[in-house]
Amino acid sequence: MTTRREFTTGLAGAAAAVALRATAQERIKPSVFGGIQVGVQSYTFRKFDIDRMIGAMRSVGLSSVELWNGHLEPTKTSDDAYKAVRRKFGDAGIVVSAYCANFPTDASDAHIERAFTGASLLGTRVMTSSVEKPILARLDAACVKHKIHMGLHNHYLGDSWFKGEKAANFETPADFLDSLKGRSEYLAINLDIGHFSASGYDPVAFFKEHHARVVSLHIKDRDKDALRTYKQFGEGATPINEVLKLAKQVGFKYAANIEYEMDENDPTAGVRRSVDYIKRGLA
After folding, report:
1. Considering only CA atoms, which of 169, 107, 97, 166 is closest in space to residue 132?
2. SS3 sequence, 150-199?
3. What is the dihedral of CA 274, 279, 281, 283, to 10 degrees?
4. Strands 36-41 and 32-33
5. H or E stretch including 40?
6. In 3D, which of 240, 256, 198 has the Cα closest to residue 63?
7. Which of 1, 16, 100, 208 is the most exposed place for a label (fewest CB within 10 A)?
8. Three-state SS for 227?
9. Does residue 165 form part of some domain?
10. CA 190, CA 177: separation in Å to the nearest integer?
């Protein structure tokens, strides 16, 4: 026989379990600081699956994600799977601000079409991409067809991993500006301020002049040493606060996405510190 005490204890335990589940399912409050939508590039969580990434984003309070194709590969994802991922993020209070789909120069038409369709199914009109210049005409045509903006991503080409042809890639202001000449309004810039600064250029001056063509900011901190070492936010040479304050001043309407390169097995603590640094800078 169950005693009154055991019954009451059972009710309390059940109530606690319900409360715990409710807390786990709470929607994340919008991570808009100083008028700027702050999110994360999901490459940051490259060792996490989407469920674990959502848990990490909930723990640090980020409600916006630029979803990297390493988490959702266009050629392997059905319409239903795209919709399911969108619902999963939406249930957590996370909006997909952009879909990052990278393409080889010889990407098939089907690959490109699938990625653009995927962006629409995820509920975003913004894509970002690390690509080489010979494919730009095809991507621009797809942008026009789908009415989706695509930000071209820059890198520091002095990094040891880079083995390609520098002239075909994006590093300098001229790489952006020359490549956008004669293109549609939909082909745009995904300005990685850490790589831009590491390459020896001023992201503040560039963003001030060309922010109207920027549809995504990647925020990271790199130093001035020979390796342009990745640093915790505020400890390197990248003018993070200056860029974000300028973004606030010009009313930047797209997301500023943390792309934290360190601690790849579990970057959660580093992302939390990065969010706190940004919040202080925009306060």
Report:
1. 169
2. EEEECCCCCCCCCCCCHHHCCCCHHHHHHHHCCCCCCEEEEEEHHHHHHC
3. -170
4. antiparallel
5. strand 36-41
6. 256
7. 1
8. coil
9. yes
10. 12
74: number of Cβ within 10 Å? 22
Confidence (pTM) = 0.90
Task: Count the domains in the chain.
Answer: 1
Of the pLDDT bands very low, low, confident and very high (cuts 50, 70, 90), residue 220 is: very high
In this structure, what token pair is assigned to residue 194? Answer: 């850490």
Per-residue pLDDT for 4 more than 50? no
3-state secondary structure of 25: coil
Whether 108 is covered by a domain: the verdict is: yes
At which residue do the structure tokens 């922010």 appear? 211
Report if residue 22 sits inside a domain: no
Run of H or E residues at 218: strand 214-219
pLDDT-derived band of residue 283, with 50, 70 and 90 as boundaries? confident
DSSP states along 65-115:
EEEETTTS-GGG--HHHHHHHHHHHHHHT-EEEEEE----TT--HHHHHHH
Helix, strand, coil percentages (3-state) for the chain, rounded to 5, are: 50, 15, 35
Contact 170, 128 (CB under 8 A): no
Which residues share a beta bridge with 135? none
Report which of 10, 66, 128 is spatially closest to residue 257, judged by C-alpha positions: 66
Is 84 within the bounds of a domain?
A: yes
Task: Taking each helix axis as running N to C, give the angle between helix 173-180 and helix 203-210, from 0 to 180 degrees, rounded to the nearest 10.
Answer: 20
User: Which structural domain, as residue segments, surrounds residue 210?
Assistant: 29-282
